[in-house]
Amino acid sequence: MKKQLLQLLTTALFCLTVRAAEIAVIHDNTITSMHEEAAILEKNIATDRYKISELPGLVRKLPSYRMVIFGTTANYHARIDFKKYHAQFRNFLRDGGILLILDANYPEVLGATIDHLADSKKLVHNWGCGNMENLGMVTPLDPYKQTLFTFPVKGGSDEFPLWLRGGHFVKISAPWQPVAKCRCGHTVIAEHSYGKGKIIVTPLFALFSADGKRFVASLAQNLLFRQKCAKSGVEVRDFHVDYRAAKPRFTLQLRNISGKELEVDGRIIFSENLLPMQNIKRRLAPGAIEKIDLELACARPVTAGVVLQTLQLAFTGKFAPPDLSPVYHLPDRIFPARAKEFNIPVKHRQKAAFSGAYLLTDNQRIAAKINNEQATLITVDLSSLPAGKHTLQPVLLTKEGKELLLPEKTVTVTGKNMKLDVDPRGNLLRDGKLFYPMVWYHVSLAAGVTQKSKLECLDFTARYGYNTVFILSDGRKEDDEFMRLAAEKNIAVICSNRGDHIIKEKKDLWSAVISWGSIDEPEHWGHTPEDVRKMAARSFELDPRCPIFSSMETIHTLKRYAGVTDMFATHGYPVGVTSLDLVSRKLRLLTDLAQQYMFVPIGTVQCFGYPGQPATGYTVMPTPSQVRNMTWQALAANIKGITWYTFADGGFNLPDHKPLYELMKKLPREVHLAIPFIQHGSYSRPSTGDNKVYAARWIKGDEILEVYINTDTRTRSITVNPVPGVKPVFGSRPVMSRITLKPEEVVIWKK
Predict the structure, then answer these.
(1) Which of 7, 183, 423, 699 is the most exposed place for a label (fewest CB within 10 A)?
(2) Burial class, 620, CB count within 10 angstroms (exposed 0-12 / middle 13-18 / buried 19+)
């Protein structure tokens, strides 16, 4: 049956698809824009590529294409006058073509591209919106229901997880219509019908993002499918398999949108012999819907192929039942201090009761404990395992006496001589003592950065109570001096090395380095989570004394890449872009993920701005009040280390901004107050009843620390329930059950 399905679909698709190039992709004259997107497209659709300087050649061939994809970065760099070709593009649209514009967060270029072309009101675009980190499902994803389309076909019920960083259109007016929205309700893809064609605009374009490139390819393919449906006069809806019942059901809806009677003649074929081939032969009146609802033989993976010969339409979808087995995670590396009391969190997808657990490793059985009847935590002592790779397999014992084997996973138990260890609470240790990284980020290879600036950063770090510097190094000679001084001052260094040869050559000479191979925003560079794991494993193999650090950008990539390295960071840079509570939203998620994926969570706080540099997107300098506010948001998220970005990066130099410079001299005293509570205390997040005011509470023996943080630019009043005996510190407001916080105010009470 598989062979028959493949042959039928291959024949149908060959007959129904135009073999000449269907898509033209316009990219920059450099290699930075649209090349990889085009490569992904070419795997499935015949695609021609044009440099922006080759626009005249494209215009001559416009009628032969069904779609033109234009990334506004192309026009941003080259500044080609697009206006003189508007007439040709109008004709292209009137004849049914699609113009897909990927707005790479350059609104002025977007306007230059489509002004006078759309003959309509402008789209008002806001890149720096408070919802840009909240992009989620258009509709909640149902694990039992899997759909064909990764982009919502208009009128259908399909879902597309909007994974990308981007803004939204804050003003949509006719004839523009929303096609997709983020879950906060803001338009993220807009369309304008023009003749028989359409202009599609979206800011969901991450230039270096691996997800972004797949998104572009998926969007293009589904727009072409939607166009083909429109030409055939049929709308495909609810094409899915629902696995919730004992016997799953396949459903399909075909709606006649042609305005005239349609004859539908075709076939539905299933793989795996789950159902015989189904014939479709119907006459559909205008607006009529043909519903197909079939019961499959059993809950197995299936490929369904549909060929509608009279409508010149063919499509296929792969469906699989959800995996309901328990889920757990192991870190790639287990550190000595953590091995003594190793906790494995388990998530269950269905109810079950357990009486105990054990762990299989290296053909031996190690006793384990569970925390409750649901076994949401397995605790085991792995300190007897020698350094090296081990295969671990947790086994849960049901109340009925049965054994539930969880999947095997391979981990590396590190040696005893680690430069940083990790304890069961996720705290870092250096030389056997608790270590809380207070890190100054210094982009040492940025244009305009000098050795003098790097040494100033090192001196500032040592002088004012910080303990770590993050630098980027290509192995240049001057870094030998920097590393020697760092070791003398007992300042740790996280080194993002440009090449494995640096680790080989410098691992013994640069004794201050506590982490190599750090990976910054890998999604921008097209690196998958598995790529990052491989890079981390390679760095660790070269120097097995150092844990690996990485930093992620968006909320989605936090979730997707969680646990790929030992220390795992994210940043929230809201000043001049969005509201301050971005820091809490991201760092609270980070510390929650750290419990599940067993990494050390590090928060990066904004300490920079680029006034007068609009291309950066960060034209506003944070005030001292805002940096203090964001720092306490990070602490209140129970983060295990803080990085301040940045001391200097070429476009910004901290000593040039005196008010902020003076704050950063004093701030370590406040951070040092919170560190023992974070490392030893029991932590909770009291509700404030206000989504702009965040709270945290630690109890450490008889000591208590409470924090209330107003992230808003307006005064907020909240009702609290303080622990008796706490008193204000650092000039905070007196202890009361009703407190009013000024804009961006932080209130700290301690007992």
Answers:
(1) 7
(2) middle
